[in-house]
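Rotation project, supervised by the postdoc (A.L.). Task for the rotation student: set up a whole-complex structure prediction and record inputs and outputs verbatim in this book. Inputs entered:
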Amino acid sequence: MSGSLDAYLILSGLLFSIGTFGFLARRNAISMLMSIELMLNSVNLAIVAFGAFTPALQGVASVIALMVIAVAAAEATVGLSIVIAIFRNRRTPLVDEYDSLRQ
Amino acid sequence: MNVDVLIALIPALPIAGFAITAAIGRRLGKQAHWIPVGAVVAAWAVAMVVVFLTLTHAEPFGETGYDLTIWRWIPAGGFQVDVGFHVDALTACLLIVVTTIGMLVHVYSIGYMAHDEGYWRFFAYLNLFMFSMLLLVLADSWLVVFVAWELVGLCSYLLIGFWYRRRSAALAAKKAFLVNRVGDVGFALGIMAIFLSTGTLGIQDSLASLVGPGATPVVPIGVIAFLVFCGAVGKSAQFPLHVWLPDAMEGPTPVSALIHAATMVNAGVYLVARANPLFAAAPQVMVIVAAIGIFTAILAASIAFTQTDIKRVLAYSTLSQLGYMFAALGVGAFSAAIFHLMAHGFFKGLLFLDSGSVIHAVHEEQDMRRMGGLGPRIPWTYGTMLVGAFAISGIPPLAGFFSKDEILGEAFKSGFVWVWAIGALVALMTAFYMFRLMGLTFWGSFRGPKEVWDRIHESPWVMVVPLVLLAIPSALLGLVLGLPFGDSTLTQWLAPVFEASESTLGHEASFDLVGVDGVLILVSVTLAAIGIAVAWRLFGVRWLAFRRDPDPVRVEAITASSPATRFLYRASLNKWWFDDLNHLIFIELGGRLANAAWWFDRVVVDGTVNGLGTTVSSIGGGLRRVQTGRVQNYALGIAIGLLVMAGSFLYIAGR
Amino acid sequence: MPIPDSVPILGIGWNDVLFIVFAGTMLGAGLLVVTMRDIIRCGLAMIVCFGALAGLYVLLGAPLVAAAQVLIYIGAISVLILFAIMLTQSKSAPVRLVFQTQAVPAAIASIVLAIVIALAVGATDWGAVVGPLHTATDDLARLLFDDYVLPFEVVSVLLLAAVVGGVFLAKRDGHSEDEAV
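Outputs recorded:
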């Protein structure tokens, strides 16, 4: 099992869907961001898995994975800053109370 | 003075009177009558001149009359309508009646309406009516006749509902207008048919082209004639459109005299007489005309037996006499019909004005059961009314005798024996109910309250003079126009108008005083005498050598004697339930239909339109909830969309 | 004594065992992240998840990535998240609802997504070779600083921008009491 690409890809898909569920279903903004991190990680797993099983992508996959990690870090930083800024205004971290765009 | 100007003045004077009175009448107050009465008197004078010129065949009238075009009203390519006048002998006869009675009624109204606050309004409306009626008899285009037709209907509405605050008057005016309208639909269709068939709306031109040799009209002549007759049925209150005339008595008595006795209701008779070539070419329609006419005559006479309002009796009497005129037209006795029109105009106008005088004397009481014994107290009214009553009963040598006998004689000689028989019976009935009216009003003893009896007085001279002036032609007109027998003066005057039709119908003028005609005259005079005698026996009399007291006990006994008479009494009292029938059909059933249509309009039509709006708006409301303002909801939408796309890609790739 | 080639009794290879352990830990921790009520515990579960992921990277022959995962994700991002949780705690009573109203449709969507991915993965021929290939670190370094030095530099600028932006967004400015935000 550990020698098949499909297993790793399916694993990545499962983690991605877990992250999707968390993003769509949780009320707290920080939870949503954590779910986003899960999704990014699942993609990372997929990339590294490809790198491990495709000779043409052997080193490149690791490079890409490192880039993804860096970008995820940047994105987490900015996202959390935004949540903190909104929290300062609304006094709540719950996204279903951020509904100024509501008709 | 140019003849054109004279003819144009006849309708112009009353309309000017109307305009001025309507504008400044309110401020003139009690003096408001000078201008309208002056206008009508002047119009009468001018009309008499024109009549004289016409009947003596002076230039430019000649034998067939004179045409005058005032104005091109509608120049629309193939559809040309001119406002113009055609003056011939028939017009002259109508002018005599309309202007004379109109003038006398105007003078009478000065006294009758003296205490009314709408004094100026009354005279304005009367002048407007004079204008409309004169336009009607003078016009030379079907469309102008129709316009004048509607205008007289409007004036009738305005005048019946003159005391507009009285609910019964307003309802009666509305009823008159609506029932008239029913007939007018037929008339309008007839005019359209005439235009379709001949391409012109001028009366003389269209008649010539419709019945001339080689004419093949688009619409059958019988249909056109019937449609035109429909208009006459409405305006002249023949069965089944007779229901408005008795109710029209809600208007002031001068109105009843002028409009509903002497002029407007004659418009129908005039119309058929004017269109006589049309009718002569359609013998089946003539039979219908005669049948409706004589049926109306006997129907109305039977109702007049039991009416207690003095004006209602006269109204039904008018209906009955109009029926006579239509019967005459139906059997082809056109000049007899016109003769009766003129005679009836005078004596019915006289009778109505007399009744107004009576009502004025007993202080606005119209129920005959509370009158009686008024003869000695109001001698002028009594005398003139007696003359009128004898005239309408057909006693020689008064006017009614000549005209009625000419009608009955022509009917018999043309083979319409049933018309003659019914007409003779109606003559008996007419005499009876007229003298019942005289008995209840003038003879016997007074049955009203004492305060009224003490204050009974004769009317002012302004009212009495027209009465006398009307009594004279009622007495003498027959002698002037009806002699010599068989080829009377009037027949000679009207010959150019009617002779073509009479030859089409195959009538020959013949008269045997010592033969058929003599016997018929004897029969009708005898029947009239019987009617008068019975009325005297039951309702009392005090005239010359005849003296008898009223016998109400015997009247009761007769009406209650058998089931048949009881039924007839009830039927007569309820006007043969025609008003109830109309109410049932139009108000009840029509009301249900209208309600159903209203339901349909509200629920289905409006419901559909409103439903569309509501549906769109609720869809919008539903769709609005997609915009929650929450990012997660939008993200779910993205996820679902993504899944759908991926799924379909997989599906397509898999196939 | 030398380690046997495969697990005794069960007969599964050691790699597979590790794979199962790490995968299970990862998925379990992931589920805990998205379903637990207390956010702090979600954060901690996330740390566990990242750790398991690092193990999977090692199994896939990418040790540098594993190291970066541990250092950056567990060491920096998770800490950042825990700080943010601390800063956004509201003093009101604990929230009753954990999940949104749309949780059920979201769950269905997620499950369908997983199925679709699984089907897509299974249906595609990736042209894979047997056995994970291990990446040598010096090969990776050569790639990173020679062929892909531009993305490397850009990412560092991106990180700088992110830092500046984060500081700006999250700082409490002195005028906020006077003017409307």
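Student's summary: The interface with chain B takes residues 20, 23-25, 32, 95-96, 98-103 of chain A (CB under 8 Å).
Supervisor addendum: The domain at 5-94 of chain A is CATH 1.10.287.3510 (Helix Hairpins).
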